[in-house]
Design brief:
CATH architecture of the largest domain: 3-Layer(aba) Sandwich
CATH topology of the largest domain: Rossmann fold
Number of strands: 7
Number of domains: 2
Helix content: 40-55%
CATH class of the largest domain: Alpha Beta
Shape: globular
Order of helices and strands: HHEHEHEHHEHEHEHEHHHH
Structural class: alpha/beta
């Protein structure tokens, strides 16, 4: 039974790679940041489950609703859930309204938006989905290592007996690293497909970017639940050096840790010999917004442990 399902998953990926979306429903309403082959694969994966009421489609990272609503309108009798608190990639605070407006226009009554932090949602996802197990799971939220890994770990107890996981934006090395770490520590899951492009679509020439938009955009890793250990091991490639992860620790303990993105922009401007004023203004503004917190810290080795207990036992016994 498992082998048949795995072949169906791989067949769906071949079809998505060859032809993209299952149909063009919603094309006049939907737009966003997903490859057509990626969305087409999600649509086909849901189609493998035949409209069952005890399972569902779930995604983390809704953005403007392209993948969630493309799946929902293609399978109107299948429960679809999307988790997002719209805290990133939404500078004007518009995305929640866009998703709601698109859902109404498409009459996608089977699509439910869970407006929550993804970790808080996943910790109680069984109640939020009405007790349904997750058969198709799409991870497209924050792409830092920890968020990616927690997205995989927290969903484990809530997956259906047969389940597919699609990890988006796998071009990023920290995304691949989290997938690899999950796979090597959980051998009951296997990767069946990976696809990458030469760079982020924002950095590609027009022709290459167009090809990526027709395909898997910024890369994908596709995993299946393989309790019977039928499939061979297949792991995403990762950098040999762990230097960047050590850098994360060095940044986190620094007094100005939250200013890291602005500091990198300032460093880039300095190395390019450009005008430092805009980057300097940005970093000063972020610093000023929380100056009291920054000034209360040490220059380095901040461990944020002052309020923690010097010793505590479990309540057991």
């Amino acid at each position: 039974m498992g082998e048949r399902f795995f072949r169906q998953v791989i067949g769906a990926l071949h079809e998505a790679q060859a032809t993209g979306l299952v149909s063009d429903k919603g094309r006049d309403v939907l737009g966003g940041l997903s490859g057509r082959a990626t969305v087409g694969a999600l649509q086909r994966f849901v189609g493998l489950f035949g409209g069952r009421s005890d399972i569902c489609y779930l995604e983390v990272g809704v953005f403007q609703g392209l993948s969630l609503l493309s799946v929902a309108i293609e399978h109107p009798d299948f429960a679809c859930f999307g988790v997002d608190n719209f805290s990133i990639l939404d500078p004007k605070g518009e995305n929640l309204g866009i998703v709601q407006e698109r859902t109404a226009r498409l009459k996608a009554t089977n699509a439910t938006l869970i407006n929550m932090d993804f970790e808080a949602a996943l910790e109680r996802i069984d109640t939020l989905t009405g007790g349904r197990k997750v058969a198709v799971y799409f991870i497209d939220g924050a792409h830092d290592y920890r968020s990616q890994l927690m997205g995989l770990l927290l969903i484990k107890p809530h997956l259906a007996e047969q389940a597919v996981i699609v990890v988006d934006d796998a071009n990023y090395p920290d995304v691949r690293q989290s997938t690899r770490d999950f796979l090597v520590s959980h051998p009951e899951f296997k990767m069946v497909f990976e696809a990458y492009s030469a760079g982020h679509p924002a950095n590609l020439d027009d022709a290459t970017r167009t090809a990526c938009e027709a395909g898997f955009l910024n890369g994908v890793n596709v995993l299946v639940k393989d309790v019977g250990r039928v499939l061979p091991e297949m792991l995403p490639p990762v950098p040999a050096s762990r230097h960047l992860y050590v850098n994360e620790w060095l940044v986190h303990r620094h007094r100005l840790a939250e200013l890291a993105p602005e500091a990198m922009d300032l460093a880039q401007a300095a190395l390019d010999g450009g005008d430092l004023a805009p980057a300097t203004a940005r970093i000063r503004a972020v610093y000023a917004a929380d100056k009291a917190s920054f000034d209360a810290r040490f220059p380095d080795r901040n461990v944020h442990s002052a309020e923690l207990t010097p010793g505590r036992f479990t309540d057991w016994g």
